[in-house]
């Protein structure tokens, strides 16, 4: 678990101030909470000229610790030396205040972690531009004598004009003596370089390794050293080669170079920027101009920047196409292929994402939607009995000239063999897109549990088969004529299957419940995934 310290900025959801929150800090009027974590609270404020800032205040118990205050002052001094177009600039600080605080420019955009979770892996050109932008940010950080030490997707925010690297709270001046607090560790296992994992001195090459792991995730949706417990990830980081099988082919050599085990075998940030310039998709012009992001991501980023984010009254806060390319870098190292469905990683507070407020429980939201659907169905039944002309709720929306147009029933092809997955308890969920078990409330297309039933996303459709067989065509017909408003475990006896269709209709999963323990315990199910390209 990494410590979230000053220099960070959470996601862009705003939450109303509570009665216990201060209204002013360092002369800045506080307007909303941006998040809270184990080290402190982050607020939205504005400069006298109206520019938004993210202002973080440490918790009182840390403010009274002289060792912590010394470390905090050192970290602020390090952050103030960093001046780069791809970093969140330091605006002001109060290291000597009774309750120390620290402020940076506020970036009203999602993190790379959120972008990949919501939209999937990004196109190669976008990935290359991100690499060049983050590499330039690292140049500014390293030029100030600082090593970031916790570069990861949650610590890179996306703005319309490029990425912004945040969270210098774990960074140390390269020649400084680290002060490690009780219960705090530096770095995140999946992006930690071997020398860092072994407790050896870090250097700019440590951040280059992390950048390679970050870019592999953005390009493939998978971390190169797999999921699972931190101890397992650290072992693979130190002893095994990265799994780059899902990374687009023309990025593999570059990423393998970044992920070399020995620091001296890795490229410099200048090497990375030169490699991006040399790629045909960039053509020597790595510009963050219109079109550098996919349209869905661009719309989200533009929308967040064009209007103030809403302030929610009830805070719910978490603790924290292939193109051949010149090869101005060494050939890729051999890659290993781990099991396709790694063991789940335990949910824990994480830097960046850990300080972001989370949405209300998707279980509660889904149950509310079910009640609405049931009520509408009841009204339709009454109207039907009265002789009214009623279109059944489950009929395809596009038949009426509105809503999404889904692929035909016969267009789905198998995505591979049936796999069996287990949720240890209700703090995990099934990620239907990747076919993995992940911490709860992290997957965009998910299957979760709530007591005695499965829970689906608001925008997914489902159908429970009346027999033991269920083909993709049966699923589509069932969704169109008899959609499921709830999927109770009791209705799935004898491995009676059900299916779930993604919001865009291109993904479809047939599920068979194998075991479900009571009271939020273990759930095991078998999954067959299908895909349509129409």
Describe the structure.
With 534 residues, this protein is α+β, with helices and mostly antiparallel strands. It is built from 12 helices and 23 strands. The chain has helices at 60-63, 66-80, 112-119, 124-143, 194-197, 204-220, 230-239, 249-258, 269-278, 295-306, 362-385, 472-481, and strands at residues 14-15, 24-25, 28-36, 40-46, 52-58, 90-94, 101-105, 146-147, 156-159, 162-165, 172-173, 311-312, 413-414, 419-423, 428-431, 436-439, 446-450, 453-455, 461-464, 487-488, 498-501, 507-516, 523-531. The strands form 6 sheets. Strands 2-3-4-5-7-6 form a 6-stranded antiparallel sheet. Strands 13, 14, 19, 21, 22 and 23 form a 6-stranded antiparallel sheet that branches. A 5-stranded antiparallel sheet has the order 16-15-17-18-20, covered by helices on one side. Strand 3 and strand 4 (40-46) form a beta hairpin. The longest helix is centred in the last third of the chain and has 24 residues, at 362-385. The radius of gyration is 25 Å and the shape is globular. 45% of the residues are buried.
Question: What's the short story on this structure?
Answer:
With 534 residues, the chain is an alpha+beta fold.
